[in-house]
Batch of 4 targets.
Target 1
Amino acid sequence: MEVQLFIRVRGRVLGPYDHEKLQSLARRGQFSRLHEVSSDGASWVRASTYPELFTALAAATAETANPPSPAIDPGHRDPKPATSLQVVPPSAAPAGTLWYYSNSGTQQGPVELSYLEMLISGGRLSETDLVWNEGMTEWTAAGWVPALARHFSSPPSGKSGGRQSRSGEQLPAALCRAATASRGWVLFITITLFVYAALMALVGVLSLALEINLDRTQAVASGLFSLIQAAMATVGALLLLKYSSRLGQLASARSTAVLEASLDAIKAFWIYVSILMIVFIAFMVVVMVILLAASSRLPA
């Protein structure tokens, strides 16, 4: 029985498709060896792992060496469909070279290199989109072309940010295991903080409502202090809960974008803890100054 495959494109999962459908997508330039595929939607590999998907593409290329294309100026040689991925040396793209690119399965061009750079900065051309010029023998993924690859190393200026072009990258399993190994402890601390927050909130409410063994001023101060501690613990627990959720996603997706999101989540937690520590130290300094001032006024 033929195995059907899912495709992951910029974080979106499509399919499953049978081999005939995938071969059709490959012939139209909508599916390349750089795309990620999966038989179960959980474990992802490069499409190049299934060379039979591109056999028909190679045969079609051999039969039609230079097919006419209305998208290409008659003065330029028609590019051949990509049958393999290779890095194009910088010398193959001198100044003034005209480029063609594939956008949503449609061939576009010719355009200058600066126009492709603008598309990259706006998030409209990704690392896996195919490009070609007359100095290249085959269509090649933009991320493999030195003249363009350097633009993917920094976040684009568009709203989508730099993660969109890297969201399909799959991380090594060992790295993901190391990153998610502490998730159990993160969950334990999260639950502990939630329990502590609930207890402090209960103490605060009882102090304000019952005023047990305290005068009114002490009861109000104690109740408010307990409620403040409950709020601080709750915020910290929510930040850790978000981090734990990101680690869970990382264990299944093994995506660069998810790893970055998890690092952002734990960064937010540590910033919050740092702010609390600064406030606590400042509070203790104020209390010490007040106590020293009060002691200096006591009679000898």
Target 2
Amino acid sequence: MIIVTGGAGFIGSAIVWKLNEMGIEDIIIVDHLGESEKWKNLVGLKYLDIFHKDEFLEIINENSLGYEIDTIFHLGACSATTEKDADYLLYNNFKYTKTLAEFSLENNVRFIYASSAATYGDGENGYEDNEEKLDLLKPLNMYGYSKHMFDLWVQKVNIADKIVGIKYFNVFGPNEYHKGDMRSIVHKAFGQIKETGKVKLFKSYNENFEDGKQMRDFIYIKDAVDMTLHFYLYKDKNGLFNVGTGKARTWVDLVSSIFIAMDLEPNIEFIEMPEILRGKYQYFTEAKIEKIKNAGFKKEITSLENAVEDYVKNYLMKEKGLSN
């Protein structure tokens, strides 16, 4: 049995979709659906059962699930970089993850969890997925720190060689529509272009970057899923790994690709960045991916232009997700 926490969310539902494509249906989904529209990501997926995240935690604490678990993909978390409730992030992103990790180790269950590129902060200490350099990292927001706390805990209790942590960079693609402000710029920009014919991007407040030339490592969801599932297929590979393309691109590159996919001329307007974001903004991220390659991942990663074209033409324009 495979457990996917956050299984109705963006990356989680994509993991379930890919597992289904591999012929795997013995899956239990754990999530908090609430009043959001992310339940739609479940349509078309094949799985055995679904539990609320709090109910599942009780089951884990009591060890009463009733199934033999092979692997837990722990992708559920509060991913809002603007979340101000530090106690909530501490419980939901750190304590919850710690409980699942301890259960997995005690019961010989493969544990693969989501960390984040937000742990790298402004990048002054680089983007190398090296556990020995974790103490140098300084996240810019509480979300990033909550993820960093667990990475540090893994190091302190010496279990990095027994589990897998995935530092996702800027993932975009189908099944993210429910994420509100945390949707990718691709999804937001597509809507802006349809409505107004132009895209709004934040101005730069860093003299080293022109407006729109801030850079990110944008990775397509299908590639992020393949890189994550590599560690399900190769259970002897453990540690902390970046999941990105290894090549930073500008916001202008990204949105220009959207216009091209829609057969339109680029039309970009630069706007003021909200005050709340200015001191917590990453101007450059670029994954070092030598480690995952050395762990045996050999698939070619989709180019930004091809990824955006696939997303726009085959999903956004058709208003469909991965499984429907």
Target 3
Amino acid sequence: MKKSYTLLTVLLSAMFFGNMGCVSGSTEKMKNAVVETDEVEKNVTEAKIEYLADMEDYMKEINTKISENRQSITEFKVRVSNSKKEGKVEYEKRINDLEMKNKDVKRKMDEYKTESKDKWSAFKIEFSHDMDELSNALKDLTVNSMK
């Protein structure tokens, strides 16, 4: 009988300590999963902060360019209105067109809503292209008027 109690005690001890190893392994896996989740959340948060900072910087840059365009248009209007050159009406029409385009890009920028980083990248590329065209048109107008 004593042997069976000893055998039973050994078997129960082995089962108990065996289960303890499984529990501690599961606990360790849970801790690792929590740490990994925290790291992923931290990376997502950092990426979102970076994305929003990029948006803010770009919008400041564009607003500066829009203001510069507005100033150039105003200066050019004054120059054309004081001149007696032929084609004054044509220049005024081109100036008004550029002024409308400048207002349109301003409106487009103001109406942009934060969506996703991919959509922001696409918007930024298209918008930069539009701004470059507007800037080039303003430069061309000024160069042509100087001739």
Target 4
Amino acid sequence: MWGLWIAAAIAMAFGFVVFRGAPYVPTRKRDLDRAFEDVYPLTDTDVLVDIGSGDGVVLRQAAKHGAMAIGYELNPILVLISRILSRNQPNVQVRLADFWRVKLPDDTTIVYTFGETRDIGKMYQKVEREASRLNRPLYFISFGFPVEGKEVVKPDRGFYLYHVYPAE
């Protein structure tokens, strides 16, 4: 009987998130390495924020490239998994939080997401509002889905890099 309750809780944790954002789809490490070397070369001065950080693979790869990496995730199970897998990386932080309701850290330089068509435009607008709040441009990488009507700085095999300026 407990097994059914646990299975139901897990299904609810994963199912709830679908209504608030994209489903959990891990990105391959080699694709991330290419993105963090060729699309936007990360350095130790970068602070990368991952929207919907899932199991933290993006965070861990960004930290390996020298960046501070901060993830926001709604699914408490994925937050726990991400924290366990990232426990030996001091440059990784995982926050159980709704990205739509938080302010980006003041030192953010780049925002990463695997969004989907339904929300990618709203994510871009949120990053644009944060660029306005911070009074400086930010970079935005979308994996898998371009932002309609926005100029891509550098596309590369499913990664789309944007330079997001403060709204006027």
